[in-house]
Amino acid sequence: MALTSDRFKNNARLQAAARNSPYMKWGERGEAVAMVQQAYVDLDFNLPNSKGPGGFMDGIFGQETYAVTRQFQAEQNDCGVDGIVGKDTLHRLDEIFRKMPGGAQPVAPLPPGPHAPRFEPTEKLKGFDDTVNPRWQMVPLNGERRVRLMHGAGLTVVSANTGVATVHEVRKPFGHGGREFIIKGHTKSTVQIIAKRGASVAAQLDVAVKSKKTVTITFNYVSDSAGHKTRRRPGELQPTFDDAKKIFKDQINVEIVKRIVNPAYKVAGNFGSIVKWTGVPGTDEWSRIIANRDASSDLNVFFVWRYEQDEKKGDGADAGTAGGNCLLEDDLAWPFWHVLAHEIGHHLGVGAHTANARDLMVGGQGAGAFIPKAHANVMNP
């Protein structure tokens, strides 16, 4: 079907593109591209870098035109989001301008919530918190993180303080239709990354540049004089340790170091089938277990056969952590990596549990690995 609006009907290249013979895509130049660019501008999309001398559109189908095309497509009900200008996109544009009275320009409504500019992570569990407003990103000191800006075509993205962090765009097309930026941390502090149109802020990302914090751990495999002992073996520790280490390194720049593995930590006495914490001097088995802890490490983890810290019937707590010590039993209700990392989180200062199964510090309702901003700023201020 031919284009019929006064704006497009007399251009042969646009008529061909409306038949996909061929469609217009990244790299094309010419009057037809400039006409589509101007149509986007008249629909209140922003292409500040696509204007040539005299304020006319430059007719170059590059990154900005590609991104705005995808943004326009995403806001329609009948267009695939592919960044090319072909049959569906041109007929939708033609329909819009065909309905306009002569000389009038359509006024685009404010974008709905799903299409408002916003920052997103490019990878999961890399220190990005989308539960707070403004959204938040941890960036390691002298390191970097990569973020995505959706529905941000034509926006200028800057750091409010380049001494703390700088931001640079990765200039290439992405299948998601957004733009990507690399944020580099230079000084331990906080800063805002701002996406703006002129003086108006369209989206903001709070950034915390964090220096590396190191936590050393000694792992002790416990047995008593009566033959009770953990079933865990030192050779099985590494995969779980690596999982826990990655959680903290990637999200809050805390380096977990396995300092010592003690395969035969012997404690005199008969502790029975359960090692109990009571908090009562003289009866508290916890204090007897930790008596010969490795004082040179920040945290000692003691693997015991079973641990309890309350009077509830059945197997309650999987582990307990206090004062640089953690007792962790064999029979866990949740994955080993989660329980170990969760207890390290307690050691780093987060006491209260959450009710969000996504969180690392969830209280018995899941096995998440996510560290939100509030917890990150406690674990590594």
How would you describe this structure in keywords?
single chain; 381 residues; alpha/beta; Muramoyl-pentapeptide Carboxypeptidase, domain 1; Immunoglobulin-like; Collagenase (Catalytic Domain); 3 domains; 5-stranded mixed β-sheet; 8 helices; 16 strands; 22% helix
Structural summary, described in words:
It is a single chain. The chain is of the alpha/beta class. It has three domains: 12-99, Muramoyl-pentapeptide Carboxypeptidase, domain 1, CATH 1.10.101; 118-210, Immunoglobulin-like; 213-379, Collagenase (Catalytic Domain). It has eight helices and 16 strands. It has helices at 12-17, 31-42, 63-74, 87-98, 237-252, 285-289, 336-347, 373-379, and strands at 118-121, 128-129, 135-140, 144-150, 156-159, 165-170, 179-185, 189-197, 200-210, 213-224, 254-267, 275-276, 299-303, 307-308, 319-322, 325-328. The chain has a five-stranded mixed beta sheet, with no helix packed on it. The chain has a five-stranded mixed beta sheet with strand order 11-10-13-16-15. α5 crosses α7. It starts with 11 loop residues before the first helix and ends with a helix. 38% of the residues are buried. Mean pLDDT is 89; it is low at 101-112.
